[in-house]
UniProtKB/TrEMBL annotation:
GO terms for cellular component: membrane. Residues 4-319 form the Acyltransferase domain. It comes from Salipiger bermudensis (strain DSM 26914 / JCM 13377 / KCTC 12554 / HTCC2601). GO terms for biological process: polysaccharide biosynthetic process. It holds the Pfam family Acyl_transf_3. This is Exopolysaccharide production (Acetyltransferase) protein.
Length: 351
């Protein structure tokens, strides 16, 4: 899909808000309290990613014919290799430095790599993989599977089938209140955020609206986020679906509707390209910076704490861009070309 610059910039904003959140948590005691509470709103970056994902998946599927197997392979190529590399690097670093704060086991690592939701070995109450930010990818991969299933039905029925599936799963979770990690994840209200993105894409394709409507949507989204966001309990998925997901849906709708009026800004565009790498690898900046922070107690204070957050943001953005250019993008192109060549050989052989 051709880039919609506003959506691209939202991807950058979502990734960097998560980075700022995690950086702020490391220097919480020294940050001015109002600023720290603003940084806590970075939890909503994940929910914004989910809405954007639903928007992009629907938009892509409407622009070209696709079949379920090919769709899933392409999404796997896009998502899995960088995540696998990040997870393996995290495991290797943890083993080398002998960190007492992380527990590793073979089942834990294998389930993490396979996108299987499970309770974390270090934090038994949380459904987290080895690389904690990867918990969101369990939702992404499940949504891709559900979305691929809808590609088996007529194009005119896909939205209704997808909507029915997602609402049915969430209803089961609400009624049954499951206790196992897989069922909790696969019946979570967070799935409705993907659906929100799909709804936004359908509206955008049929009635994108003008400056007034979309500007108003963005303003309402900002107010709703500022009012509801501080009330959200990030561990309560109904709370965050309403408080973060709701404003996120309005924001994506407004920004998408202004697609033709948002200018190309190369720096923000590049940050949007690198947003996935920034999100996956930012802990490789946050954790070492925390070690440096702890080792220099005489410098602690509000000013240096704010500088810490800014430096972590800058280094994470830099690392993400480097990894996007020299790891993520080449891997995606190479694997996509392998898939394309394989399909061509199969077509030739079938003639």
């Amino acid at each position: 899909m051709n880039k919609i610059y506003g959506i691209q910039y939202l991807r950058a904003f979502a990734a960097l808000s998560v980075v700022a959140l995690h950086a702020g948590k490391r220097v919480e005691a020294e940050l001015p309290e109002p600023l720290y509470h603003v940084l806590l709103l970075g939890h909503g970056g994940v929910d914004l990613f989910f809405v954007i994902s639903g928007f992009i998946m629907w938009s892509i599927s409407q622009k070209k014919e696709t079949e379920p197997g090919g769709f899933l392979v392409r999404r796997l190529i896009r998502v899995a290799p960088p995540y696998w590399i990040a997870t393996i690097c995290f495991v290797l670093v943890s083993v080398v430095i002998g960190s007492a704060w992380v527990e590793l086991s073979t089942p834990h690592i294998l389930k993490s790599l396979a996108f299987v939701p499970h309770f974390n070995a270090t934090e038994p109450a949380r459904i987290w993989p080895v690389l904690v930010p990867g918990w969101t990818l369990n939702y992404e991969m499940f949504f891709y599977i559900l979305f691929a299933a809808t590609l088996l039905v007529a194009k005119s029925a896909r939205f209704f089938v997808l909507t029915g599936l997602l609402f049915a799963l969430v209803a089961v979770g609400y009624a049954a209140k499951p206790a196992d990690a897989i069922t909790i994840t696969y019946t979570s209200p967070l799935l409705l955020e993907f659906l929100g993105g799909v709804v936004v894409a359908r509206i955008w394709q049929s009635a994108p609206g003008g400056v007034l409507r979309n500007g108003l949507l963005i303003a309402i989204a900002a107010v709703a986020f500022l009012v509801l966001g501080p009330q959200v309990d990030p561990t309560d998925y109904w709370s965050r679906t309403i408080g973060f997901g709701g404003p996120g849906i309005l924001l994506v709708s407004g920004v998408a509707g202004l697609a033709g009026r948002v200018p190309q800004l190369p720096v923000l565009e590049r940050l949007g390209d690198a947003s996935y790498a920034i999100y996956l690898f930012h802990l490789f900046v946050v954790v070492p910076m925390q070690v440096v922070w702890v080792a220099m107690p005489d410098l602690h204070g509000p000013g240096t704490a704010m500088a810490f957050v800014v430096v972590v943001l800058g280094l994470s953005a830099l690392l993400g861009n480097v990894l996007y250019l020299y790891m993520e993008r080449p891997l995606q192109i190479g694997l996509s070309n392998l898939l394309l060549n394989r399909n061509r050989r199969q077509q030739v052989a079938s003639r």
